[in-house]
Amino acid sequence: MPRVTADASNGGSSLERIRSSFERQGLMRTLGATLDLIEPGHVVIVLRPSAAISQQHGFVHAGAVTAIADSAAGYAALTLMQPGIGVLSTEFKINLLAPATGDRIIARGRVIKAGRTLTVAQSEVFAQTNGEEKLIALLTATLMAVGARDGIVD
Amino acid sequence: MPRVTADASNGGSSLERIRSSFERQGLMRTLGATLDLIEPGHVVIVLRPSAAISQQHGFVHAGAVTAIADSAAGYAALTLMQPGIGVLSTEFKINLLAPATGDRIIARGRVIKAGRTLTVAQSEVFAQTNGEEKLIALLTATLMAVGARDGIVD
Amino acid sequence: MPRVTADASNGGSSLERIRSSFERQGLMRTLGATLDLIEPGHVVIVLRPSAAISQQHGFVHAGAVTAIADSAAGYAALTLMQPGIGVLSTEFKINLLAPATGDRIIARGRVIKAGRTLTVAQSEVFAQTNGEEKLIALLTATLMAVGARDGIVD
Amino acid sequence: MPRVTADASNGGSSLERIRSSFERQGLMRTLGATLDLIEPGHVVIVLRPSAAISQQHGFVHAGAVTAIADSAAGYAALTLMQPGIGVLSTEFKINLLAPATGDRIIARGRVIKAGRTLTVAQSEVFAQTNGEEKLIALLTATLMAVGARDGIVD
Known about the structure:
4 copies of one chain form a homotetramer. Chain A has 3 helices and 7 strands, in the order βααββαββββ. By secondary structure, chain A is of the alpha+beta class. A 7-stranded mixed sheet of chain A has the order 1-2-3-5-6-7-4. In chain A, strand 2 (34-39) and strand 3 (42-47) form a beta hairpin. Chain A is globular. Strand 4 of chain C pairs antiparallel with strand 4 (86-96) of chain D, so a sheet runs across the interface.
């Protein structure tokens, strides 16, 4: 169950939007990712390393690390959108700083700049081993606001 | 079975290296991705859209698109490495140009510049629908050559 | 004088728009950059190496290479915009593949995907020495369409 | 005159290395950029807006913003290198968050992860107007360590 902080700016509804949207992301379920925190402008997603999401050396695959980092950045942006407005990732860049291995992989997404059309968010990804965290990746994403006329909301 | 072109530069062994490495990528199996082509400096990986790899609107999740695009770029680089030298992605950037939907998602990775320490590769990702292809994403990656002293080869 | 190809899509006016806009870019004049080609979706900008645009080892500074690559990508996008609509760079990524040195540095910008709100363009940058060209950098940019209400056109 | 903090890790010599290297960057002089701070892992470069570094709407050109952001990131990395080891930018990505305009443009570069071969650094760029600062750009760069055998040091 994600920890939640009330979001005065949109009446607390963003919790439900994001939880419901996350549950519809089949890939998050397939990877075994979980929502750990939802706050205005800040979302945390967690992954547990396993052979099912590995690359050839046994580390978590960069694609799985990127998937939770992108989703954390996107949902961080979504927490700041008005009802009826969703977001799509238009591009992102990730630097892979160290192998993704440990007990948990934790992506913390935060909004850097919220705009009417474009929002920029970053995710820091940490590998947690015996309670200690190490920064293993840094993602910067541009999200575009989209609405009902685009057929896309949550 | 991937189509293969003989690789004079390293005695054709890169086919086996890459096939074997790909089979050890648990994430590729989990996503249902397949190797479709291995040539010197060029690797193609294919994904079939399904609910298991979707985002919240039913399209293929950017994380899954990125995973095959990153692997295709990395394996394209690996085809040009000497035996005993592997590659690791150090960073990549992807532009998501259109929703990932259709019959097949095809990532074509190519080496742009091969270097002793760093290799730059790009993957173009296409969505194929009724035999027609549309460019949906463009990834640029930097791969670092790593060897036995790093504990990493294939 | 830039070579120009008639642009049926907007009555050939994009030549004048781009030439006039380029002349207002003080930085291009300061760097000594020149417009070499304007076609629909394709713009070429050229720089001559000199001490005034160098980095500490005597090569052309990455900032100068980036400046012409970004402008070439942006103007390539602008050639496809309707009158009254301009573009702004929202982000770009550049891979620096080899030192920028030689007789001329040539940035060739091309549109990859034109959209209503966002356009993605790439610039390949070549160093030309004794008539031979070598790829030295690759830039991918996202341009946002902006209009009169934003106070920005050409 | 840049403010300097003693750098115990390499005997304080990095100040002189960086000041001397900066003075050899012809582009920094051409742009009118100045070194404002050198500390271990942290370098600040400042630019004063003028017509000579403008784009077509009168803002500071993204190329000039990028030039100081790239140099600040690179010099931040250089502060942590051993004597005899230099750095080269291999790639960077910048998000342009707001127009570059005001009294001063300030790029603050910081090392995110220092490595034997690759170092990742970020620059935040602020526009300062009447003493107030606004974040206008965010750059992430990968620097490669290079040595005497590459013919490149400072």
